[in-house]
Input
Amino acid sequence: MKTVFADQMRKLDRRTIEDGTPGEELMRRAGLGVADIARDFLASRGGHSVLLIAGTGNNGGDVFAAAFELSQTDLDIEVWLCGSQGQIKGDAQLHLKKMVRAGIIPKEVRSQNDLFPKTQPDLIVDGLLGTGSKGAPRGFMGPLIEWINAEGQNAFVLAIDIPSGIDADSGVAEGLAVKADMTVTIGLPKTGLIRPAALPYIGSVEVVDIGIPHEFIEDIAGCEEAELIDRSDIFIPRRERDSHKGTYGHVLLIGGSKGYTGAIAMAARAALRSGAGLVSVLTPEEVYPIVAQACGPEVMVHPFPSIGKLVVDFSKHWKKITAVLIGPGLGQFPEAIEHLLKHCKVPLVLDADALCVSPERIAAAECPVVLTPHPGEFERLFGKPVVDRWAQAKQAADLTDQTIILKGAGTVIAAPERKLAVNLTGNPGMATGGSGDVLAGLLVGLLGQGMDMFDAARTAVYLHGIAGDIAAHDFTQSALIATDMIDALPDAFRFLQSR
Output
């Protein structure tokens, strides 16, 4: 999805208003979107209390509109205003009056003595500062942001448009900033949300459509470097009634070694959940029984004598393979990787230990390749620590002429002659052993079904993050393990296909 600078978003709003949609209506739609997400969250967590905190600008107007929508429910609603009602102007004032008529009177907060909610909130909505704010928060905004962050240890924090204190264009916090669990951005995602500097503050990102005409959006250049991976960008086609297992590809996964059998098993199970028609695994003889047991009955597991004797003949037994993954739990054996780069003719995923050959070898591959390094593997492969995720991912893609998935918070996908794609699904609970193996298995399964390399990479990281978010909801971030993500993949697919 296209990301825009704050000034570009203001121009889109003005043009839409000039086209006949009143500003009051755009604000109502923004508030409705925020309220819907707030209701869904509280329902999923069994919460009942919401505290909405407004500033005196249009961001505060979104708060008032959301509070009015929530007033139609049986939720316990409280609104704080950092400032006075007399400072509210324009469309925000209209929604303030509407909220007051619905019986919600905002509490003006001006000092530490005011920071006592009527009820301990389950959800805090941050609408203090909007996209027009620059520099460090001033006045009582600072102590109020500190209070929100302290309360965020116990309550879920939802920011409207961008967390207060974050620059909407650069993503930089020049002083205190709200640390949100989710940012509900209005109209289009702001460029600052996807920049690495903002990652500690934004949480997951949801986009609220307020009806900006598509042709207006097309006329705006947006960020030329990168885009956000959004649900609307991901397409999983429905299966034809007369299809069969051969329709959905046969993927081959190569990995496993003594002490590291779980990695290839988790990748295989994720590949099964990707929708691939057939999944085969090649693993060393010494661990074959363990891997076969761990993969489950649906996976065809084959032993080979040793990694040094691994020669995959794509002209005979494996001639119907549609995608290959090598690396999980394998150990570093450059000769085997180089053999695949020379002889494989189908999409090849190099993951984990397989990231042990030179970029020049990868650039000379006879097949399209996806590399899936975390920052440590990236440094090993390209010789430099990751200090600028965007620039280095792009340079790596250009150097190898292949697709790069640079994992971590704000996973970046780079490919030659493409904008960077940034993923913001997922959560810190996914920082656990095996998470990358699940992603690699999901990715090779999508590639094996014939999906374009870049689209498969975008889809895999997005679904992987959604599965992680579902699993965290069920098991908490602290207790999350990799197999929970595999089990959550069906619900992640259902989330996409519910449109």
Observations:
- Residues 153 and 179 are 10 Å apart (CA to CA).
- The chain has a mean pLDDT of 95.
